[in-house]
UniProtKB/TrEMBL annotation:
The protein's name: Beta/gamma crystallin-related protein
Native organism taxonomy: Bacteria, Pseudomonadati, Bacteroidota, Flavobacteriia, Flavobacteriales
Signal peptide: 1-21
Residue ranges of domain Beta/gamma crystallin 'Greek key' in the record: 66-105, 119-160, 162-201
Family the entry assigns: Belongs to the beta/gamma-crystallin family.
């Protein structure tokens, strides 16, 4: 009996080792890891590369340290979802509907990030940092690059020193908002409505500004310097460049030696007012009515 127990233990140990040391993920035709299967190493796969056919995937085995992003259309388009653990049975909106896949090794990605000291923000499909997630380095991302799908973002983890600008339309258009701290649950006007994102590092930007002596004006969505905020240096900015969205400005922090002219219409049109001091709450005729601004030093 003792010898048998030892043999069973060794078999389990070997099986466990094989699972953790795998250098690929495995896709299956049926739920519960049944039907035809095919192993995929790190890389990008179109419909013809999946090995078990197009629109037939129902389950995926994903070893620890690996990440899989699936797409309903070929060429990494359509609805997408990212997984980093086994999927026994894919949700109905994706089951038998997957046409392209990206496979990546999280460990290598993390080591690379650590070596370059680059932090990453993490997008989540649900509020409270739940559901499918995907991490992004500094850069610009359109709808099919978000990793959790288009119009699915509900919460974000944003490390200190990072800034995220969200856009409701693709290619950095539509309403926009900038965040520099965690968002537990997106405001209703943005929840499940994000199609493109810009990710930047505040520290690098701020240190560059400090070295060059450039001061910046800070725009806030709410009075008393609260809510989403965005910093702007000298220049002219239209509605899509304000960083907090159109018709959302309520308060301003203005450093000495700087002035800003606010316009109620885009392209420096409509009613206007010039300010050279911080305002904890804009006059009612400009509060939530600013569509373009001009900033200068004096």
């Amino acid at each position: 009996m003792k010898k048998s127990a030892i043999i069973v233990f060794l078999l389990l140990l070997i099986s466990s080792f094989n699972i953790w040391s795998q250098d690929h993920v495995t896709i299956y035709q049926d739920c519960q890891y049944g039907g035809r299967s095919h192993a995929l190493k790190a890389g990008n796969y179109l419909d013809r590369d999946l090995g078990i056919g197009n629109d037939v995937i129902s389950a995926i085995r994903i070893p620890k340290g690996w990440r899989v992003t699936v797409y309903t259309d070929n060429n990494f388009k359509g609805v997408s979802r990212t997984f980093d653990e086994d999927v026994v049975c894919i949700a109905a909106d994706l089951n038998d509907k997957i046409s392209s896949i990206r496979v990546a090794h999280k460990s290598n990605h993390s080591n690379s990030s650590a070596g370059s000291r680059t932090q990453m923000i993490t997008l989540y499909e649900d509020c409270n940092f739940r559901g499918t997630s995907h991490s992004l380095r500094p850069g610009n991302y359109v709808d099919n690059q978000l990793g959790i799908g288009n119009d699915r973002l509900s919460s974000i983890r944003i490390p200190s020193g990072m800034r995220v600008t969200l856009y409701t339309d693709n290619n950095f258009k539509g309403s926009s908002r900038t965040f520099d701290e965690n968002v537990v649950c997106m405001p209703a006007d943005l929840n499940d409505k994000i199609s493109s994102i810009r990710v930047t590092q505040k520290n690098n930007h701020n240190s560059s500004s400090n070295r060059s002596g450039n001061k910046m004006i800070t725009l806030y969505v709410d009075c008393d310097y609260r809510g989403s905020s965005h910093k702007l240096g000298p220049g002219t900015y239209i509605d899509s460049q304000l960083g907090i969205g159109n018709d959302r400005l309520s308060s301003l922090r203005i450093p000495s030696g700087m002035r800003i002219t606010l316009y109620t219409d885009n392209n420096k049109r409509g009613e206007r007012i010039t300010l050279d001091k911080s305002h904890s709450c804009l006059p009612h005729e400009f509060n939530d009515r600013v569509s373009s601004v001009h900033i200068e030093r004096y």
